[in-house]
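User: Run a structure prediction on this.
Assistant: Running it now.
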Amino acid sequence: MMNGDSCLTVVMPCFNEEATIIECVTKVLESRHVGELIIVDDGSTDTTRSLLATINDSRVKVLLQDVNQGKGAALARGFRSATLPYVIVQDADLEYDPAEFTKLLQPLLDGKADVVFGSRFIGSDAHRVLYFWHSVANRMLTIASNMFTNLNLTDMETCYKCFKREVIQSIDLKEQRFGIEPELASKVAKGRWRIYEVGISYSGRTYDEGKKIGPKDAFRAIYCVIKYR
């Protein structure tokens, strides 16, 4: 198992991602590390569900939420269903590249880490240039989180978080929406697990392309930083 083959459960929350879902699933399943892909459709109202029904791969499990509950709720359900030694979050929008699973897994496979964050703000990987104020908000939220957790993360809001399964399944998650990110950072810090960060690429999308996070999520994140301190 030390080479990492088929050791990884990917948890993929999705909501109205008809434009990218099949391509994203294909890229995830190309990774030699992936032994299980749990897709949690969070009440999609476009053709996402019908597209998911066309997937024919024994590694894929599709869970359907009756109504849209939020990313946090979808992740919590996926985490509970994971069965393999390591668990990673993968958004369905292709902003993050599944080809980078190897670098995220390596500190875990080497026995150095219990949790790995993929940072968009370190390293030399390619990054699409987009919204200035988004980057400012991300950095401010990360600093605020670090002040309460005493961590030195550079990207608390990153999608790419990889865990030992027993770690993520031991955390009682409460947040339904994007507040899941500061909640996870706070609770892994409180658990005193070994946390590593690795640089990743980032191909962000615009709101016209389907980006969903907004200003109210930033305010909720601030609230969650304080709530879970």
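The chain has eight helices and seven strands.
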